[in-house]
Backbone:
């Protein structure tokens, strides 16, 4: 994997996915505060709960979101792309090249520019 191939968005998605996984398990998302929280903490009772223990269904969506961001960064670093079924097969090369491919020129309805010699 070559991380120098990553674009800014892929890098942000990968780092955000890793940070989301860390915050799901290591940091308290909910807790008891105020006088009751201080009293419970003094008695040795844990007053905070992390996202994994607090959220029943959403925790799986959070994990899926984190893995999607990390997966995007890994795909970008390995140089692979996802073949989306609704795009033409050549569209990934079309946007990267300097000249348009057949998928862009075939759908173009504007006439070709003409040159006049004066």
Residues:
């Amino acid at each position: 994997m070559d991380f120098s191939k990553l674009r800014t968005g892929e890098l942000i998605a990968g780092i955000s996915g890793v940070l989301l996984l860390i915050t799901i398990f290591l940091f308290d998302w909910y807790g008891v505060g105020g006088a009751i929280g201080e009293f419970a903490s003094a008695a040795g009772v844990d007053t905070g709960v992390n996202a994994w223990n607090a959220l029943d269904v959403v925790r799986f969506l959070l994990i899926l979101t984190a893995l999607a961001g990390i997966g995007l960064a890994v795909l970008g670093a390995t140089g692979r792309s996802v073949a989306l079924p609704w795009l033409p097969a050549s569209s990934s090369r079309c946007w990267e090249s300097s000249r348009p491919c057949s998928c862009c020129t075939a759908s173009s309805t504007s006439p070709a520019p003409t040159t006049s010699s004066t």
Notes: The chain has a mean pLDDT of 78.
